[in-house]
Design goal:
Strands 2-1-3 form a three-stranded parallel β-sheet. It is an alpha/beta fold. The chain has one domain. The protein starts with a strand and ends in an 8-residue tail after the last helix. Helix 3 packs across helix 4. The relative contact order is 0.17.
Length: 96
């Protein structure tokens, strides 16, 4: 199982090393630093690879993991990764 997490927790080399070993993948959010949003290409490619190899990942589609009891605006990242992985594989992945 892999986990997508906000990029800010990967700030030190030590954290980066440990978090990657724990199968965490950084997601660069606009609210943290819009200039880094282009780095999500690598994160999305990793997501495609995970799905193509019948793996699984956890992503919070609201973009946050705070335990508030309200539904936040849902982000598109999870759907985009799943749809692109399917598209790259002629819709034969059966991703759910």
């Amino acid at each position: 199982l892999h986990f997508f997490a906000k990029s800010t927790i990967f700030s030190s080399r030590f954290n980066n090393f440990i978090l990657h070993k724990l199968n965490l993948i950084p997601i660069y959010r606009k609210i943290d630093d819009e200039a880094n949003m282009g780095k999500n290409v690598d994160s999305f490619i990793k997501g495609y690879e995970i799905l193509e190899n019948s793996g699984a990942f956890l992503i919070f589609p609201e973009g946050v993991s705070i335990g508030k009891r309200v539904l936040e605006k849902i982000k598109t990242g999870a759907a985009r990764i799943g749809l692109e992985a399917e598209s790259k594989n002629k819709y034969l992945q059966n991703i759910e």
